[in-house]
Task: inverse folding
């Protein structure tokens, strides 16, 4: 089975100014990893038409799926929809189903469905709507690009609704070996394990507490048996050097 | 005065897998904004030599400063130093001053200055060391690229030490107008203000609490008087529509 690749494009001046801290990259990264889709790259860019067009073109060509967040609200700087449409040479239309959903959402409130809010029903032609169970205004899918809101709760709800359409690969097996040894001491063993088990990736996370230190070594691979063998080999080598090493049961590692 | 531009490159498979959540983009974004340097773009990429070389080349050409984080530790997947050197056609040398600092750091501990740890003294020729007051292993500056550790506390300490060398621009004035009005209702006023005051950027942050909602409008500009005038004009228009609008004093807004 071919593993699908993905990229993320976070669109918004407020992230680049530091005023708002991005939470979407980390959340989506976890989801995609869980589904067996390889996240290749994430970018944070400004709300500028040329900028958005350039990065949407780049990343939609480089990966199987591109997920964007931000810039689809009602204000003047919400230009993601128009820019993504332009990147694919599509016109933007006022989408009847999107209008219907927004009208239903505002019905019975004293919120006016004014021109600014109507803009949230503008969708590129040939795009498919992405449901927004939080605040109605939909995202959309155009070609391999999934355009979602920037507000984390809305983005997450949108992704939960669309993720069944994505083609996931085989989930990776992940095994943590907790070692009572410094990262610099275990580095050679890790490098050797990485070479001996080419399908297994070996990452290290050193930690310090008063009076204690150690390194969590995380082994990940598509092949569960290979990954287990790599973990056992690494743990044995650490013990042979006279240090403690414990292979954690799944779920114990965070 | 020309405003300097910057980009950030976060290097690390552990961020793309979702295991570790990046904190460096948000922190650096705040620092740069505070200094009057324009952060143009941030990217998160994998620990791959070709990948690092390509993005370092791209971003170091596109912006005045490039800040990288991650991949300068002792393990086999710490390949940032070698890759950045290659991007600039430089050799990597074992740097005597870096060796001295690491030796001094490990002296009197039972940590062995083994081959893996010695790798942290490998620095591209012609690079300047960046001090690491936390764990000694230095970062480095090569051309307009500042290579720092991935661990947030170390990256922050490194940046604090180097930031006086950066050429900051005029800090932007930022004024928040707290409006008792929905984002969709105020959108037209915001768009008009943005057009009437071209040097002032106008962003909106809608918020909801039980029984209450509103929009924080944030105006930022290099010209303090212009930004103030834009804030007053916006607040007046909101009040003229019959809604509340309060210009917050600096420091009240977060």
Result:
């Amino acid at each position: 089975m071919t593993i699908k690749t993905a990229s993320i494009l976070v669109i918004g001046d407020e992230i680049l100014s530091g005023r708002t801290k991005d939470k979407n990259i980390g959340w989506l990264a976890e989801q995609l990893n869980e589904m067996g889709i390889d996240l290749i790259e994430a970018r944070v860019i400004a709300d500028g038409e040329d900028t958005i067009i350039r990065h949407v073109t780049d990343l939609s060509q480089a990966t199987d799926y591109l997920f964007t967040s931000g810039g689809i609200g009602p204000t003047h700087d919400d230009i993601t929809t128009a820019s993504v449409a332009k990147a694919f040479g599509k016109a933007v239309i006022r989408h009847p189903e999107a209008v219907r959903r927004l009208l239903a959402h505002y019905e019975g409130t004293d919120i006016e469905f004014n021109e600014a809010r109507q803009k949230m029903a503008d969708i590129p032609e040939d795009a498919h709507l992405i449901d927004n169970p939080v605040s109605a205004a939909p995202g959309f899918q155009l070609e391999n690009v999934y355009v979602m809101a920037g507000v984390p709760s809305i983005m997450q709800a949108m992704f939960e609704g669309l993720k069944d359409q994505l083609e996931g690969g085989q989930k990776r097996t992940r095994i943590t070996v907790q070692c009572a040894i410094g990262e610099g001491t275990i580095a050679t063993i890790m490098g050797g394990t990485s070479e001996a088990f080419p399908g297994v990736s070996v990452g290290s996370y050193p930690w310090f507490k008063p009076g204690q230190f150690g390194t969590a070594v995380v082994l990940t691979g598509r092949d569960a048996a290979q990954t287990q063998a790599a973990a056992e080999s690494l743990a044995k080598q650490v013990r042979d050097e006279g240090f403690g090493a414990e292979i954690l049961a799944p779920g114990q590692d965070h």
Q: What stands out?
A: Chain A has two domains: 5-165, 173-247.
